[in-house]
Structure formats: C-alpha cells, structure tokens
C-alpha cells in the first residue's frame, strides 16, 4: 500500500507559507514548547512519542524546545510559562489539556498553539486528531486470528470519547474475523497506574482472555507484563511496545504523534509560521498503523485478509465507526 505520510496532510501549511510575501529565514532557530499529558515523560507511549518527534526536529533543523509536566495540577501555569519563554509555537498534548489551552490562548491571541488529540475552534490553535479506530480495527483482526479461547480483552485508560475510538475499532476488527468472539472491556480511570493495569488484565485472564489490547498509557504497561507472565498474547499502543513484554506483544497500534509533531516543526522551520486549521489523520494519511507483527505467524489467507481490509479502509470502502 502506497503511503503518503503525514507530511502530505500538512502540505496546505507549506503552500500557505510559500504564498506569504515575507522572507523566510530558514537559518532562524525556532523555538517550540510542549506541555505533556498527564502521565508525563517516560510513559513508553504517547508522551514519549511526541518528545521523540521534537528530538528529531532538534537534530535535523536545530530546533530549540522545552517541555513541562503539569504534575502540580496547574496546566494553565505551565502553558503560560512556555508562552512567556517566547516559543514560536506551544503544544498541548492530550484531550484533557483543551480547556487550559483555550484559556491561555485567549490571553495570548498572537501566540500560535497546537492541540493534539482534541479539536479547538480558536483561530490561534491548530488541532490534530487521529482515527485511532482504524488502526485498532487491524489490531482486533490480529487478536481474533491469534485467540484460541475466543475471549479477548480491552483495557482503556479513562472512559472518554477518545478512548472509545480504540475500543470501538478493536471490537469491530475482532468481530470482522470472529463474529462470535467475546470481548471484555474495562476502564482503569487513569493513564498512570501500571499496577491497576496489571490487576485488570489478570481479571480478564481469569475469565479466559488469551489476548489483551490496551489504550491506557502507562497503566497499560502493567497489562502487557501481566500478559507475558501468564503466557498469553497482547498488543501495545501509540508506539511499538514489543520491548515491554517480548514474549507477549504480537503488534502495537502505532499512532504517529512523533511524525505529526516533527512535520509541524519542519513546516515552522521552512515557513516561519503555520496556518491554523484542523486535521484528522487515519490510515490513508499514514497517521495510524501497525507495528511489526511478531510471535504470531499469519497464514497466507490471514495476511491477505489483513491487507485487503487495510486497503478497503484506506479507500473508504470500509468505514470504521468511532463509537
């Protein structure tokens, strides 16, 4: 399948920038500030992916960046600090940062902001969201192909619409392959409690689940380890989490936050600014996908089915519902 990468989706930024009569200074050291989501740096998932995108931009373009973790419960204060450090763009990572970001954006109308995983209508906020349900559909197919008990588990972080995308797509993918399979669903209520993730996974295993998929941030880390300790299979999320549990993780649903952040930085480097808008990245835009499939060898028929469905989702022939 030909992939066009997230860069193409941001082409409108570049076109708009090129039409500007102002001289672009590619040698300028642009500055980016980022407020990480609740679990913070080291979550082996969402935050680390975004951070890696900024590191890549720093290494390639000489971009300067700084970050904050609002562990004190004051995201507005953290965002304000980043604004006052004169960053060219300030990023808020995660749906829970929306209200704080909009409050700060209203106070600094000339500052450009980026919100990832939620949508804002404010003129100085760019919004980037992902079609997590599409990548999760493919994980669900693999789970169904792998499961011998026909009992499969899903563990979400917080019970909110964003995490419903993962759950809904996953269940649709499972049912596409095995309509009679049973899917257990639990929400941890947090993205930052691996012991709770382990506990939830063990309860699902006790009920017969032999494949568990999580969309729970660092909480899900515990579920992957529980799967490995109990000799069942699992799938990671956001980044390739095979290294977390190398005897359990068959694949991961890749959410290319790193690529999206990198592309924003590249556009800023090349054009000096970014035209505010809203973008949603799915399989067609190479915004989500699958990590390498390991541990489980798909049959030729299973591999062909996975490829066919991927192409049908990309072309729009199959629509994966978000709820």
From TrEMBL:
Signal peptide (residue range): 1-21
An annotated GO cellular component: plasma membrane
Family, per entry: Belongs to the BMP lipoprotein family.
Bilayer topology annotation: Lipid-anchor
Alphabetized InterPro entries for the sequence: BMP_lipoprotein, Peripla_BP_I, PnrA-like
Organism: Robertmurraya siralis
Keywords, sorted A to Z: Cell membrane, Lipoprotein, Membrane, Signal
SUPFAM superfamilies the record matches: Periplasmic binding protein-like I (SSF53822)
PANTHER family assigned to the protein according to its UniProt record, in alphabetical order: ABC TRANSPORTER GUANOSINE-BINDING PROTEIN NUPN, TRANSCRIPTIONAL ACTIVATOR PROTEIN MED
Principal location: membrane
Identification of the protein by name: BMP family ABC transporter substrate-binding protein
Domain ABC transporter substrate-binding protein PnrA-like positions: 35-322
Superkingdom of source: Bacteria
Keyword Secreted on entry: no
Protein's cellular compartments: Cell membrane
